[in-house]
Design a protein that fits this description.
single chain; about 900 residues; about 10% helix; seven-stranded antiparallel β-sheet; mainly beta; six-stranded mixed β-sheet; 56 strands
Length: about 900
């Protein structure tokens, strides 16, 4: 097989299942085939086929295929319960538990008959559901092909295939009704006589709509590599020169090359054929994993560790050990996709580019037996009671638990590293993967672990009298992060109240619980806190709630120049959305929403990523790195994904690390860089402009900006030349404009200016929000403005909106703050303004759709002013859009109607702001 084919193939096979399709003696594997046409038996069976299973069929193989000399096929029936085959004597079949049922089709198409999990009632469901097959086979290399086709009346679901208890195809197989999904992968069978294949639902939700099913399984024997194959591979290996590769990957390569040479010298009669094959595989894999030393960040590109393995640290965070001068990166190990879990992985680095795999810092648990038989698990939890072990198993269960967004901080007082993560999973009363809504905590004497899991908790609760978003589900904790302040006080930041509101909670002195549940100060074994029997937290002292009902998650908190910053995402599942950030002068103080920090993000989806952490590289000089996760996706910023196999493949989710830039007034900006290095951060800290700059700019005009300015960075003041990045379009958009200036020394400065029209009579912020930019812009209009006292209101015979059933969304700026139609009968948004002075006016309208990930451009509007249609099919999308309607002749009254131009879900109209200006 050619090298390029093998590289793609390795994306499908588990790392633990090394590719066995080598050289030119076997066909390349099918990677992923989703289609709607029938596949014939002849397409699936070859002379090397050992088993052909049409699951759910009661027929003999001879009933559907002219078997001829069929001694190479080891099953005479198309499907059977596990046991001896009556025709061949070989032992194979599906296991009787969990219970399954067959759906047999009259046709001989292998796509039509299938076997599926069949529970009589949800209580019958075992913890590990799915379909389990075993096949008697000699040692060897095999290709396994699994075909799954949901019937047209079955709802879409996911599947994951395991072979020999290892995930055979990374990530979930996404199934669509009526469409065949086929996966092929390589398996090595060594020191065993049975091949185990499991078809599972990766969510393991007790629901009839998620039960696993399978249509066919084909097992094909592959040949072994020969000495000639090994000779050719060694020639290629010897041509590789040491060109600044990591010492670890180069060491593995040289070791594998040495073993390959050794196998060539050995007498073939003194080793098994698979030993040469294994040496061949090891050398080929080592060649693929030779890894150049990195000296820059490549956001969105595949990131491998120093041994050439894909880094598995999703939803993670960084801790810097100042004594060792080592960075530790902790994250979710998604090698197996969503499930089965592996745990929290740890990597170490001196430079942030090149990372060493330190192994699992916190290990998931597959069964209660591990507490007795597993060397690591039995030692870690030997002092725990049986009841505690059962609870630990529930929280760390590889098949049922959720372990997300792990973060680690160091406690100076206890000299221990403390890990918190979002601990979730089904409960006795709910099958949802996110029913527990807890935070888990673990502790270790070493930054690399092993971490001992302590417990999972619900956290702080909504105080009496507040607008509780989950009054019957108090203390919820989901996406979370950790922060240690300058005084060593620890905090946990997390989404609560069904993700509607964020909380910031102070931790106990040992960081093992929240302070609000430990007011009595009781301690137990090993001095660990014992929770109060009664909740006594003091709001504002022990915790606060922020961004109430704004549906934020993925919090990332950091501190710079005495101010606290919090970057968050919206709540759209795995799909990316616009980031938001807030600032506060005190961590448990008043947080102000500042809007989207991303600049040039044309897709308005945080560059197709979701925030997870901010690395404080140099807190004095403003050097911070934004960390995001690009969960499975097809495109970003309307560009094709670099790896088409990434979509639906959590194990290959990518990392987005970008520099955070601070403006002169302390705002933050995140821009895209295809490649960058830490030296760029030297230009990112706050440089204050001392020269007086224009605060207000007339709409459509270019202000006179100075070519030299006086700046202040830290305590250093200087006069320096500057080039302003402006053109004729910079001031042709109403609102706040941040003008970039490039200083002579390469640093950037930023001047914020408000672009407003002259003679504004009405300025309506349609979401009734007194946002910072609205208040600032309104101040420039006081001489002409007629609605000084209200940002928005219902029509009162003078002005206002006439749609009493519309609703508002509160946001961080005049675009994000909006009014939307909510009445299925009355779908227009109508604003009326009475008794205007006769004359000619300009009407400016602002639009933005924060729910664009759902509407996908389907939210369209017709704009009607005083009964005249000014525009049809205006698309309200994820960008900040302004539309001007000039020279509107008004004799007294003005009415603006935003009328939906489409029908169906996510087509209701919305509007952010209105300005009405009288022309001179």
């Amino acid at each position: 097989m050619k090298k390029g084919i093998k590289r793609v193939f390795s994306k499908v096979c588990s790392i633990a299942l090394l590719a066995a399709i080598i050289g030119g003696y076997c066909p390349p594997p099918t990677l992923a085939v989703d289609h709607q046409f029938d596949k014939s038996v002849n397409e699936l069976i070859s002379e090397n086929t050992r088993y052909f299973v049409n699951a759910g069929s009661s027929k003999l193989l001879s009933d559907i295929w002219d078997i001829g000399d069929s001694g190479h096929i080891l099953n005479s029936r198309l499907d059977q319960v596990y046991g001896a085959d009556e025709g061949t004597g070989k032992t194979w079949g599906y296991l009787p538990l969990p219970p399954t049922a067959a759906s047999e089709a009259a046709s001989n198409s292998p796509e039509e008959s299938f076997r599926y999990v069949a529970y009589e009632k949800p209580d019958d469901r075992e913890r590990l559901g799915g379909i389990h097959y075993k096949f008697e086979l000699p040692e060897g290399n095999y290709e396994v092909t699994v075909g799954i086709k949901l019937p047209p009346d079955f709802k879409g679901r996911r599947a994951i295939v395991l072979a020999e208890e290892e995930v055979s195809a990374k990530g979930n197989i996404w199934l669509k009704s009526g469409t065949l999904s086929e996966r092929s992968f390589a398996v090595k069978l060594r020191n065993d006589t049975e091949l185990d294949i499991d078809i599972l639902d990766p969510a393991f939700i007790p629901s009839i709509n998620t039960d696993a099913l399978v249509n066919y399984i084909v097992i094909t024997e592959l040949g072994y590599a020969t000495k000639e194959d090994m000779e050719q591979l060694i020639l290629k290996a010897e041509a590789i020169e040491d060109d600044n590769y990591t010492k670890e990957s180069w060491h593995h390569f040289k070791k594998a090359l040495k073993e390959g040479r050794h196998m060539l010298k050995k007498d073939a009669s003194k080793y098994e054929p698979y030993e040469l094959q294994d040496a061949y595989d090891a050398l080929e894999l080592a060649m693929e994993r030779i890894t150049p030393v990195r000296n820059s960040f490549l956001p969105g590109e595949e990131w491998v560790d120093v041994e050439g393995k894909v880094i598995q640290a999703h939803g993670g965070g960084i801790w810097y050990d100042k004594d060792e001068e080592i960075y530790y990166w902790y994250g979710e190990d998604k090698t197996h996709g969503y499930r089965p879990l592996r745990g929290v992985r740890c990597y170490s680095s001196k430079d942030l580019y090149n990372w060493k795999d330190e192994g699992l810092a916190l290990t998931a648990i597959s069964s209660m037996a591990q507490f007795e038989k597993d060397p690591l698990i039995s030692k870690l939890y030997k002092h725990r009671t049986e009841e505690e072990k059962r609870q630990i198993f529930e929280d760390l269960d590889v098949n049922m638990a959720v372990m997300e967004r792990p973060k680690v901080i160091y406690n100076q007082k206890t000299d221990k590293w403390v890990m918190w993560f979002h601990a979730d999973g089904p409960t006795k009363t709910s099958s949802s993967n996110y029913a527990r809504a807890k935070a888990g905590v673990a502790v270790s004497h070493s930054p690399t672990g092993p971490f001992e899991f302590i417990a999972s908790y619900r956290l702080d609760e909504c105080p009496p009298g507040a607008n509780d978003g989950a009054p019957n589900n108090r203390g919820m904790a989901r996406d979370m992060n950790l922060f240690v302040d300058d005084d060593q006080t620890g905090y946990i930041i997390y989404a609560s109240e069904h993700n509607g509101t964020l909380y910031i909670s102070k931790l106990t002195e040992d960081y093992l619980d929240v302070a609000g549940w430990n007011k009595d100060g009781k301690v137990g074994k090993k001095g660990r806190p014992i929770r109060d029997t009664e909740y006594k937290a003091e709001y504002g002292e022990d915790y606060i709630r922020i961004f109430e009902k704004q549906w934020r998650e993925a919090p990332a908190l950091f501190k710079y120049d005495g101010q606290y910053y919090l970057i968050t995402s919206g709540c759209t599942g795995w799909r990316p959305n616009p980031a938001r950030y807030g600032v506060a002068d005190a961590i448990l103080g008043n947080w102000v929403n500042k809007g989207d920090p991303c600049v040039g993000d044309t897709g308005r989806n945080t560059f197709s990523s979701q925030s997870t952490f901010v690395i404080p590289l140099d807190t004095v000089n403003g050097k911070y790195i934004f960390m995001g996760d690009r969960w499975y996706f097809k495109t970003y910023n309307n560009k094709p994904n670099n790896n088409p196999l990434n979509y639906g493949n959590l194990s290959d989710s990518r990392y987005i690390w970008l520099p955070i830039q601070f403006t002169s007034d302390g705002d933050i900006r995140i821009k895209w860089y295809d490649e960058w290095s830490v030296e760029l951060l030297d230009t990112m800290g706050k440089t204050e402009i001392l020269t007086e700059m224009p605060q207000k700019v007339e709409y459509g005009t270019i202000p006179d900006l100075p070519s030299r300015i006086t700046v202040l960075k830290g305590t250093i003041q200087e006069e320096i030349g500057v080039q302003w990045q402006v053109d004729e379009t910079t001031f042709q958009k109403i609102g706040t404009v941040t003008v970039e200036g490039l200083l002579e020394d390469g640093r950037m400065v930023f001047a914020k200016m408000d672009v407003v029209p002259g003679h504004v009579m009405y300025f309506v912020n349609c979401g009734e929000g007194l946002t910072e930019d609205y208040l600032r812009m309104k101040a420039y209009m006081q001489d002409t403005l007629l609605n000084k006292d209200a940002a928005d209101q219902a029509f009162d015979e003078v002005w206002g909106h006439k749609d009493n059933n519309s609703k508002i969304r509160r946001g961080g700026d005049i675009y994000d703050n909006l009014r939307y139609a909510s009445d299925p009968e009355q779908r227009n948004l109508t604003y009326a303004f009475k008794d205007l002075e006769p004359g000619h006016y300009s009407v400016y309208l602002g639009f933005y759709d924060p729910w664009y990930q759902y509407s996908k451009g389907g939210r369209k509007a017709n704009i009607i002013i005083n009964g005249e249609t000014k525009q049809t099919g205006l698309v309200i999308d994820g960008g900040y859009k302004q539309y001007d309607y000039c020279d509107i002749h008004v004799t007294g009254d003005l009415e603006i109607v935003v009328q939906p131009a489409a029908q169906g879900p996510n087509t209701d109209v919305q509007m952010s702001w209105i300005m009405i200006a009288k022309k001179e």
